[in-house]
Design a protein that fits this description.
Elements lengths: L2 H9 L3 H7 L20 H25 L2 E8 L5 H9 L7 E4 L6 H4 L5 H4 L7 E6 L8 H4 L5 H20 L2 E9 L2 H13 L9 H6 L3 H15 L6 E5 L3 H14 L18 E3 L3 H4 L6
Parallel strand pairs: 1-3, 1-4, 2-3, 4-5
Antiparallel strand pairs: 5-6
Helix pairs in contact: 3-12, 4-12
């Protein structure tokens, strides 16, 4: 097996993906909420990814020329595939105009300031494309569930974040928010793989150990976050992420479809709406999100 083949199978979150590569029938139960995700062979995946990465380069040329500021937030449970998705997005983009922000624990000084203050320093300036691997929404998820913030701090955040994001958008920042949604079964598999795979152990953290234990609490926190912070100015989009190949392709397509740039291949960048779609309140009632 080639190194590239091994890396692709190993990084694919859905066992159905490997099954398709070998001509087997995928297991629908391995997918998350909604229609079963049927993966694509790795050759087709890499071919489509290359075309989409070419579109990202076109996008970058365009926004550098126009002085645009683009900000993409990626949220999701532990092991939802944020790191791998970001890696594919930025792989062929200019590092000078592209930044990935993944902040650690706040310092004592940062904890004593305005909650959004440490994030403001990392916002894009003209000609920049910035991705936040987790963002201020930590307060709506991990901090809230694990008790790292008070109920009052959580409520203040939920009330103020729509206003904060409206200011960002009105200032000219093009803001895109994505929630990568993974099923409980798939999260368990990926977290176990982190421990067993020596190349992924750096991803393990004490939070991982209790992620599944607090599954329902995280689900409730996710629902509240999406319901209260999805606005016309800064809407949420959901990407079903049990199959990493399909999640990455459709995340990139969705990003490209929502931004203007010269030479866009419109048909190429249309996402599969069974995988990438705008959040609406009925997504919760219809159990379209992983429960």
């Amino acid at each position: 097996m080639s190194k590239k083949h091994h890396e692709d199978i190993g990084s694919n979150g859905d066992r159905a993906s490997a099954a398709v590569d070998h001509g087997a029938t995928p297991d629908p139960s391995a997918a998350g909420a909604g229609p079963a995700q049927v993966s694509i062979p790795r050759e087709e995946y890499h071919a489509q990814l290359t075309l989409l990465q070419g579109e990202l380069v076109k996008l970058q040329r365009h926004f550098i020329g126009c002085g645009d500021r683009i900000l993409v937030l990626l949220e999701g449970r532990d092991a939802a595939g944020k790191d791998g998705s970001i890696k594919r997005i930025v792989e062929h983009m200019s590092p000078r105009e592209t930044r990935v922000v993944a902040l650690g624990k706040p310092s004592d000084r940062e904890r004593g300031g305005w909650y959004f203050q440490r994030y403001v320093a990392h916002l894009p300036v003209a000609e920049e494309f910035v991705l936040f691997n987790r963002s201020w929404y930590n307060r709506a998820g991990v901090e809230h569930v694990m008790g790292f913030c008070t109920k009052e701090e959580h409520e203040d955040f939920m009330w103020s974040v729509p206003k904060f994001e409206e200011m960002l958008v009105k200032s000219g920042i093009k803001l895109l928010k994505y929630y990568l949604d993974v099923s409980k079964r798939e999260q368990i598999r990926r977290l176990a793989d982190r421990v067993q795979n020596p190349l992924k152990r750096w991803k393990s953290s004490p939070i991982d150990a209790v992620a599944v234990k607090h599954w329902k609490s995280y689900s409730d926190a996710r629902d509240a976050m999406l319901l209260r912070t999805h606005t016309a100015v800064a809407p949420w989009h959901v990407v079903r992420a049990d199959d990493k190949r399909l999640a990455r392709l459709n995340l990139i397509r969705d990003v490209l479809s929502r931004l203007h740039y010269a030479g866009k291949k419109t048909k190429l960048v249309q996402p599969d709406t069974n995988i990438a779609f705008e959040f609406t309140p009925d997504c919760i009632a219809s159990k379209r999100l992983a429960r």
